[in-house]
Amino acid sequence: MLMKRLSSGLLVILSVLLLSGCWDRWELNELSIITGMAIDKSDDHYELTMQSINPAEIASQEIGNGYAQAFNTTEVAPTIHESLRKHVNKSPRRAFISHLQVLVISEEVAREGITSILDFFYRDHEVRSDFFVLVAKDDQSAKEIMSIVTPLENVPSQNIFDSLQYGARSYGGTRIVTLDDLYQDATAPGSNLH
Question: What pTM does this model have?
Answer without folding.
Answer: 0.79
